[in-house]
Amino acid sequence: MTASLHTSLNRPLSLSARIGWGVGVILCLGIAAYSARYLLNPPQTPEQALGNPVGVPWLVVHIGGAVIALLVGSFQFLPGLRRAGRPHRWMGRVYVAGCLVGGGAGLILSFGSFAGPIATAGFASLAVLWIGFTGLGWRAAMQRRFVEHRRWMIRSWALTLAAVTLRIYLPLVEISDLPFLPWYQAISFLAWVPNLMVAELWLSRTGVVPRA
Ligand code: HEM
């Protein structure tokens, strides 16, 4: 599989990028498996759903869609799979469906967050951008504008990875003995704004630019 890892259609990934990709996939699979516990044992009451008044049924819907997006998306950037054509297109449709379902339910959940309006603002902006970027990426692919497709999907993926960064930051807050509520509110933004900035920086530094 490694022989088919490239940043562009022709350029092989460096060793450090391959290692980064491998670590990223392991984190994505780990978070997906950890999140799937809600699907195996669905919350029956809002208390079991993070105290979110709309947590039943929306938390399970959210996690169902988001887990699919996280699992499928990890493999969509493999050029070998992309060149194969059909698997990339089918997995892409599943990824888009996962993002739209996960994002739609995430948007509904954001209004019931136990952490109040600041967390609502953080999660709701994330949900709207996640749905928007993914939709723009899908539309660009349908219109065969593949450079724009890649750019939007890289942004969409940076937001999908909010699931990973959020679950790195939360334990750090707990072990640092920081006050949970304000940090949870901050993390509703910190989980995705830096991801998006890194994606934009990467897009501006690599050759993934639309034709003039
Ligand atoms: C990127 C867009 C996403 C948005 C807007 C979003 C939004 C939310 C919101 C609003 C909540 C409820 C928080 C509360 O009530 O305070 C939540 C919980 C949760 N989300 Fe997401 N989420 C996103 C991505 C993901 C992804 C990709 C996964 C991974 C599979 C995921 C897994 C979970 C889990 C497991 C919970 C329950 C809390 C926990 O056990 O950590 N989310 N999400």
Automatic annotation (TrEMBL):
Keyword vocabulary terms for this entry: Membrane, Transmembrane, Transmembrane helix
Transmembrane portions of the chain: 21-39, 59-78, 90-112, 118-140, 152-170, 182-203
Name recorded for this polypeptide: DUF2306 domain-containing protein
Record's keyword annotation contains Membrane: yes
Keyword Transmembrane: yes
Listed Pfam families: DUF2306 (PF10067)
